[in-house]
Description:
The protein is mostly beta strands.
Amino acid sequence: QVQLVESGGGLVQAGGSLRLSCAASGRTSSNVIMGWFRQAPGKERELVAAITWSSNTYYTNSVKGRFTVSRDNAKNTVSLQMNSMKPEDTAVYYCAARRAQINEYEYWGQGAQVTVSA
């Protein structure tokens, strides 16, 4: 089992920045991919960014150039730096983890509300 605890989030004006952090505990290993998802009201949950143990990254098109995902393997933490934020970034953001050989994310954080005002 892996436990994920998120921190950060809140309210920011358009163009501003926020940082989300996620601390992992339990059976963490070098075979774990960390991801950040978001879900806005009335919309499906989407994968925003992901990062492998060796820091290979993925970003959905709408956040490329604005969001940066990073991880500290020694501390078992992953972060999402969000810059140049837009109202459409408003959502509940979730930290998630999966083993590399598993296609679905297995472990989830509690979620953090991010609200971007126009």
